[in-house]
Design brief:
Layout: H1 15-34, H2 38-41, H3 46-55, H4 57-75
Length: 76
């Protein structure tokens, strides 16, 4: 039961893809500066960050928001 979501820029993007893109663009240090989350600033890794973001809705919202802002900046 897949539904088209043309107005949802996050549709079809996994959290892991999103996080990898942000790390590639900002690096762990830059990501930690923009979103002060311990999993980004102290011994960061994709797997530990994914575990935290999946369990913490407020943190995931911030990461998704930063990703959307980054997409807007790249398209300019």
């Amino acid at each position: 039961m897949t539904q088209d979501q043309p107005n949802n820029p996050l549709h079809g993007i996994t959290l892991e893809q999103l996080l990898n893109d942000l790390v590639a663009f900002y690096g762990w240090a830059g990501l930690g500066e923009r979103i002060d989350i311990r999993c980004f600033t102290h011994e960061p890794s994709i797997s530990s960050s994914l575990k935290f973001l999946r369990r913490t809705p407020w943190a995931r919202e911030r990461v998704e928001s930063l990703y959307l802002d980054t997409l807007k900046r790249r398209s300019r």
